[in-house]
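Quick one:
INPUT:
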């Protein structure tokens, strides 16, 4: 079992920055990769960024150059540093953790989400 708790969301103006945090607990030693997804009203949940155990990262095209994902050495906390925020970034941001081997026995865990609102 892995539990994920997001924090750091809030209301900011366009162009400002925000850092989201995701604290993992439970069987954190079994976590493969972690990432951030987001879901805006009326839209499907989409990948924002992901980070593998070795530190390699993957970003959605719409956030490249603006967002940065990182993690602690213990891999129990992941962050999403968001800069140059735009109104279209407004969404609920969810932390994601994957356990096991992709395509074989992978299990996905989700946090409850944290609201990010970008508005003037």
């Amino acid at each position: 079992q892995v539990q994920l708790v997001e924090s750091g969301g809030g209301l900011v103006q366009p162009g400002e920055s925000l850092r989201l945090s995701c604290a993992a607990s439970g069987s954190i030693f079994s976590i493969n990769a972690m990432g951030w997804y987001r879901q805006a009203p009326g839209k499907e949940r989409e990948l924002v960024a992901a980070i593998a155990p070795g530190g390699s990262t993957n970003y959605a095209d719409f956030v490249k150059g603006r967002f940065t994902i990182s993690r602690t050495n213990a891999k129990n906390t992941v962050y999403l540093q968001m800069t140059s925020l735009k109104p279209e970034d407004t969404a609920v941001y969810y932390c994601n953790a994957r356990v096991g081997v992709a395509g074989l026995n992978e299990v996905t865990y989700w946090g409850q989400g944290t609201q990010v609102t970008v508005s003037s």
